[in-house]
């Protein structure tokens, strides 16, 4: 009788392990699908941001317009922007180009994006 009980316990243990393996396999499949979906979404977002960056970098400013940034807000503006005129002397940064401002971690004001 002892041997029979041991066999029953072993069969029950294997049944539980099989159930766990099936659950983990399904979980891995779902996780893989979610990862693929998220990867596609992020790839699309990267492409959109690259396009926006190319548009911003492609904008040309006139000789009299400078690119100025606020070191507190980390935003950059065209010198003709009303917000640029409000930047205090201690917080103003001058940039050679839009690319230079972006490289230093500044974000563009709408005045740059809309021009």
Q: Describe it for me?
A:
The protein is α+β, with helices and mostly antiparallel strands. The protein folds into 2 domains: about 1-60; about 65-115, no CATH class. It contains 3 helices and 4 strands; from the N terminus they run H-E-E-E-H-E-H. It has helices spanning about 1-60, 100-105, 110-115; strands at about 65-70, 75-80, 90-95, 105-110. Strands 3-1-2-4 form a 4-stranded mixed β-sheet. Strand 1 (about 65-70) and strand 2 form a beta hairpin. The radius of gyration is 30 Å and the shape is rod-shaped. The chain starts with a helix and ends with a helix. The mean pLDDT is about 85.
What is the tally of beta strands? 4
Counting helices, strands and paired strands, the structural category is: alpha+beta
Strand content: 5-15%
Secondary-structure element string: HEEEHEH
- Helix share, percent: 55-70%
Number of domains: 2
Alpha carbon gap, first and last residue: 88 Å
Number of helices: 3
Please give the radius of gyration in angstroms.
30 Å
**Major beta sheet, specifics?**
4 strands, mixed
What would the average pLDDT be, to the nearest integer?
85
- Shape field: rod-shaped
Uncertain segments: none
Strand order of the biggest β-sheet: 3-1-2-4
Give a brief outline of the structure.
The protein has helices at residues 2-58, 98-103, 110-114; strands at residues 67-70, 75-78, 92-95, 107-108. The protein has 115 residues and is α+β, with helices and mostly antiparallel strands.
Entry keywords:
alpha+beta; single chain; 115 residues
